[in-house]
Design a protein that fits this description.
The protein has about 140 residues and is an alpha+beta fold. It contains four helices and six strands, in the order ββαββαβααβ. It has one domain. The strands form two sheets. It has a four-stranded antiparallel beta sheet. A two-stranded antiparallel ribbon has the order 3-4.
Amino acid sequence: MSITVYRNTDRIQLKVYDVVFSVKPFSFKQKADISAAITMESGTQTEDGHAAVQKLIKYSIKEVKGINYPDGSAMKLQFDDDDCLMDESIDELLNLEITPDLTTSLYSFIRGIPKNLTDSEGKIKTHVTILPYKAVPKKK
């Protein structure tokens, strides 16, 4: 059996309905930061869901195709010096009607890149897919 590992520089194409997001695998530090939004206090799990969702989007999404502004122009993401999404772009993505499907799919990426994306009942989401990866040869 062959196992595929994705580098932090790789981009995975996540299609949610007709929108394609280019996402990167999370680094260990990013996974820890996202997980910090979920804590245990006196044996009870508490979550800051908004912070976790904001970090999922901030760290993973690198490009989007298929979303337009009301004037018809294509959505343009803005990045900070660390190549993470800026708050303005995160806010725009959080206002999409497909955001719940996007964020639940991104949660799956914390455990690694899944082959299939499932809902809370374990059923495969047919409207959310990971497109086949096209590797770019490394320069010698």
